[in-house]
Amino acid sequence: MMHSTYTQQAPSSFKLNQTLIADTPRRDEQAIAQAELYSHLETQAEAVAPTLDPLTARDRRIIGEIIQVEPESVRTIWIEGGITVWVQLVGGGRLPFDRNWFATRVAEVKATLPETPLERNERLSDELEKACTVFGLYHGEINWLSFSTKLFQEGRLVGFVGCSQEVWYARPRQYGLNRVAASAEQVIGLLGVRARVAA
Question: Of 53, 107, 133, 159, whose CB count within 10 A is highest?
Answer without folding.
Answer: 159
